[in-house]
Design a protein that fits this description.
Blueprint: H1 2-24, E1 26-27, E2 38-48, E3 61-69, E4 82-84, E5 93-94, E6 97-99, E7 109-119, E8 129-139, E9 148-150, E10 154-155, E11 158-169, E12 175-183, E13 190-192, E14 199-201, E15 208-214, E16 216-225, E17 233-240, E18 246-249, E19 255-258, E20 264-271, E21 277-283, E22 288-293, E23 302-306, E24 314-317, E25 321-324, E26 328-329, E27 335-342, E28 346-347, E29 350-351, H2 356-385
Parallel strand pairs: 1-14, 2-15, 4-8, 16-27
Antiparallel strand pairs: 2-7, 3-6, 3-8, 5-7, 8-11, 9-15, 10-11, 11-12, 13-14, 16-21, 17-20, 17-22, 18-19, 18-21, 22-25, 22-26, 23-27, 24-25, 28-29
C-alpha cells in the first residue's frame, strides 16, 4: 500500500512540475487564436480616396493564402525553442479571402472584411512546443492589382506573415493546440519576468491583414480667352475603367456606372463659364481616358490643351472638334487636363473671318449711300440750271 501511495505521489509531483513548466511559458497578452484546431483571422480590404473625394467603390478582389512550415530556432537562456511547423497529409489548410465589389459609398472610406480560416484538424504533433508556420498572401491577378498595397512585409501585392502554434498536453496527457500568435514580421520571442510571472513576449503580433486600394482623379478644366470667345462648349469624355471599378463625378451629374472588362463609356459634359471644370474620381491607375471638345475651328478658334501625360496627344478632328487622338492611361497620379480656347475680334493681320460677311455688307451699304447721295446732287444741280 505504501508503495502504491508513493507511486501516486510521485506521479502527481511529475504532473505538477509539468503543468508548472508549461504555465511559465505563457504568452504575455491575448493571442489571435484560442485553443483548438481552428484559427480565424481577418482579411480587410479598404479604399483610400483622393483629396476631397466622395463616392468610392471597392472593386472585387481575391487574396490567395498558402501556409508552409517555417524555420526552427534553438533555445537560449532568454528565448524558447521554435520548432518547424508540421505538415500532415496536406494539413493544415487555409482559405482565401474573396471580397465582392461594394456598393457606392458616400463616406471618405470603405472597407470589406472577410474571415481567413486555418484548419489544423489532422495535423499530428509528436511533442509539446512552439511550432512556426509561414503564411503567404498574394492578390489574384486583375486590372486593379497595381493600386493595392499590403500593410505587411512584401513586394507589390504579395506579402508574408508568420504563425506560432503553441502545442501542450492537456489533463488527459493528449497533445493539443493551446493558442496561436500571428506576427507581422519574423521574430524570436523572448522571456519576460521571473518565476510564476515568467511569460513569452512578442513585439510584432497582429490579428488582421489589411489591403489598401488607392484611387485617383481626373479633372477637366475649360478656359476661355478673347473678347469674342463663346464660353460654353460640349466635351465628350470617353472612359474605360477595367476591373469592375466605378467612378463618380464630384460637382455635377457625371457618373460612369459599372464598367467591367474594358467596356467603354462615353458621356457629354458642358464646360464653360457656369461650370468651368469637372472632376471624376475613384479611378484605378489602369483607367483609360479620351477627351474631345466640340469647337467650330472655322470660326478662328485657337485651342491649346495642357496635359502632362506623355501618352496623350491632341489635335484637330476635322473642323468641328479638337481633342485626344487616342486613349491614355490615368496612371498613379491625380490628373488635370486644361482646354484653353482663344478667339479675338480683330487679329494683328486683319479681320477675323467670322465677321467678314458683316463687314462686306456694311461696305456695300456705304457705297450705295454714296451713290445715292451723288445722284440726288446731280438731280438738284440739273434742276437749278433750268
Amino acid at each position: 500500500m505504501k508503495k502504491i501511495l508513493a507511486m501516486i505521489l510521485a506521479a502527481l509531483l511529475v504532473l505538477a512540475m509539468g503543468v508548472g513548466a508549461m504555465a511559465a511559458d505563457t504568452i504575455d497578452e491575448t493571442t489571435v487564436g484560442a485553443a483548438g484546431n481552428i484559427l480565424t483571422f481577418n482579411d480587410v480590404f479598404t479604399v483610400s480616396v483622393s483629396d476631397g473625394g466622395n463616392a468610392v467603390n471597392l472593386p472585387a478582389a481575391t487574396f490567395n493564402y498558402t501556409i508552409a512550415p517555417g524555420n526552427g530556432v534553438d533555445a537560449t537562456n532568454t528565448t524558447p525553442a521554435i520548432k518547424a511547423g508540421v505538415i500532415s497529409e496536406g494539413k493544415p489548410s487555409i482559405t482565401n479571402a474573396v471580397h465582392p465589389a461594394t456598393v457606392e459609398n458616400t463616406e471618405n472610406a470603405k472597407s470589406d472584411t472577410q474571415d481567413v480560416i486555418v484548419d489544423f484538424t489532422g495535423v499530428s504533433f509528436d511533442e509539446p512546443g512552439i511550432y512556426r508556420y509561414v503564411i503567404t498572401v498574394k492578390q489574384a491577378e486583375n486590372a486593379t492589382a497595381d493600386d493595392i498595397t499590403l500593410d505587411i512585409n512584401g513586394a507589390g501585392t504579395k506579402g508574408t506573415v508568420y504563425l506560432d502554434v503553441y502545442v501542450q498536453r492537456n489533463n488527459e496527457d493528449v497533445l493539443g493546440i493551446a493558442s496561436y500568435v500571428l506576427m507581422k514580421d519574423v521574430e524570436t520571442p523572448a522571456y519576460d519576468g521571473e518565476g510564476d510571472e515568467k511569460k513569452i513576449k512578442y513585439n510584432n503580433k497582429i490579428d488582421t491583414i489589411t489591403h489598401d486600394y488607392k484611387t485617383y482623379t481626373l479633372t477637366i478644366t475649360k478656359n476661355v480667352v478673347g473678347n469674342m470667345a463663346v464660353s460654353d462648349y460640349l466635351f465628350t469624355v470617353d472612359l474605360s475603367v477595367p476591373g469592375g471599378a466605378k467612378a463618380k463625378h464630384v460637382n455635377g451629374n457625371y457618373v460612369t456606372g459599372d464598367l467591367e472588362n474594358n467596356e467603354n463609356k462615353s458621356d457629354t459634359i458642358s464646360l464653360g463659364k457656369t461650370q468651368p471644370s469637372v472632376t471624376i474620381e475613384a479611378l484605378p491607375s489602369a483607367a483609360l481616358y479620351k477627351i474631345k471638345e466640340a469647337v467650330n475651328l472655322t470660326e478662328g478658334y485657337t485651342v491649346v490643351v495642357d496635359d502632362s501625360n506623355t501618352q496623350a496627344t491632341y489635335a484637330a478632328d476635322g473642323t468641328t472638334a479638337f481633342g485626344a487622338t487616342g486613349f491614355a492611361s490615368v496612371g498613379a497620379e491625380n490628373r488635370t487636363i486644361t482646354f484653353t480656347n482663344t478667339l479675338n475680334a480683330i487679329s494683328p493681320t486683319g479681320v477675323v473671318l467670322r465677321f467678314a460677311p458683316y463687314i462686306i455688307m456694311a461696305g456695300i451699304a456705304v457705297v450705295l449711300l454714296v451713290l445715292a447721295s451723288r445722284r440726288r446732287k446731280d438731280t438738284q444741280d440739273k434742276s437749278g440750271s433750268i
